[in-house]
Structure formats: structure tokens, C-alpha cells
Amino acid sequence: MRTFEILGLLLCALFWGACEGNSTLLNLNLYKFLYREKPPVHVQLYDSNSVLQHVPHAWHLHRYAISNMAEVDYAPTPGDTLHIRILEFSSDMAALAFYLNSGLVQETLPVVEGDSREIAMRAGKRLFVFRYGLLRNHERAELEHYVQAFPDYRTGLPQEFLSLPLQDRIPGETSIQMRNFLGIPSEFPMLAQGYQGNDLRWNAARSWGYVSQEAWQKWIANIQRSDRRVEFSADTVRFDAGAGERGVALRLTGGRVVCVWGHLGVKSLRERFEKVAQDVYDSPE
């Protein structure tokens, strides 16, 4: 094969890869996504402005960097309607934050609401909410197959969580604290994970991304206003985390914030904190 032909193929591959990585609901033809080999009977798209006008204000979608939304209806069999609401966020982390904090979606088992069942599936930056009649049967495998057809399909925790320790994690004790970290008002989201091992329970957290020095100082000032004990050692802050737990936090070079807290002795807390701080500092995300 000639050199220019190879170069042309490589450029095409890069172009389509870039398009897939930047795909949004607004530039996808949703009529091409089949369910039980049938196209949708209705599709309605909303951008970031119109979606906030369409959904209930109580959803607080503005807090989670919502980008777009689609309402898609299928009629797999006569009299059967499968409604799918697809929420698309700015990032995987924003989608996970809404899933964990909103209390509006259920991913494990279908929830019965009136004469319908509802179940959600998270995939990368998108959240798929399926609604169908109580007397209808839609297998989870079928719904998963539908979700997997979308570009940028990813499951599991976003990369940022992988910088926190993997050993001794407590299943289900993963959270994203958006505006209130450890009961203290904050201006930066924190990703938190609970741990248990060697008869000890403790927690580690890191900021979603970069935290300004001003936002960091405001959080420290809010701790002090809460009458909790606070001590400073160089750039490290040691404080009363509540419920008799010790806490230690630091804004790393580069702007990420890390924190460890729990019912730990001084030495045990320091060792865990130093490891978490180093792991987060070394991580690319």
C-alpha cells in the first residue's frame, strides 16, 4: 500500500475517533438506535438551557453541569411503550454525582411508580432512565445492550476515584460531597470513599479537580467558624472532623485537595494521609 494511502487511512481513523470522543446527544441521530430491532417512534432533544426549563426545579440539574437531554419513545409491541430519558452531563464525574446525590434514580432494581416501573443505568457521561408499564417485561440485558450501543460507553467509577486507595474499600460507601464537605460549607466537590480493615474504619477524599487558594482558605475559615478544633502545621490542616473523629487535609501543589479522617490514632492517621496525598499527587487526573 502506498505511503499516502496509509496516511489517509490514519487521518480518517483519527477524525472518526475524535468525533466519537466528542459525541453529544445533539449530534447523534437517535432514530438509528434500535430497541428490539425497531427505531424510536418519537425523539425530543433539549440543550442545556431548555432542559432546565423542562425538568422539575427540585432536580437541581444546574448543580451538576447538565449538557443535554433526550426523551425517546419506543413501541416494541402493540400497546407497549418504552420511554427512555437520557441525561447527558459535561463529564463522567458530573453524571456520577447526580446519580449518587439526587435520590431520583435507582440502578439496582426497578422502582414502581404508579402503573410504571423505572430503572436507571449510568454509562460514562450519560444516565439512561427507562420507564415501562408494570405488566410489561424488559430484561436488564436488553436495556444494557441498548446503552452499550452509544459512543463513549464506560462503566465503573471515573478515573479520579482510582487515585484513592483500592484496598479495604467498603462497598457502597462512595460519595461525592458537592457543597458541604464534612458538614462544612465548601465551594469545591470532594470525592469520598469509606474504608475498613484491621478493626479500623476511616475515610479518604480528594477534590474533583483544581481548587483555588481562595476556595481552600474559605473552607478552612468555615471550619473555624463552626467552633471545631483546628491546628496548622505548615500547609497541613488538622481538625476535629466530628463524631469524635480526627481529620487532616492539605491543598497539594497543583491545586488538588486531599483529606483523611476517622477514629484513628495520630500515627495511623498520618501514615494513611501521607499515602493518599502521594497517590493523588502522582495521579494524572
UniProtKB/TrEMBL annotation:
Origin superkingdom: Bacteria
Name by which UniProt lists this protein: Lipoprotein
Organism of derivation: Hallerella succinigenes
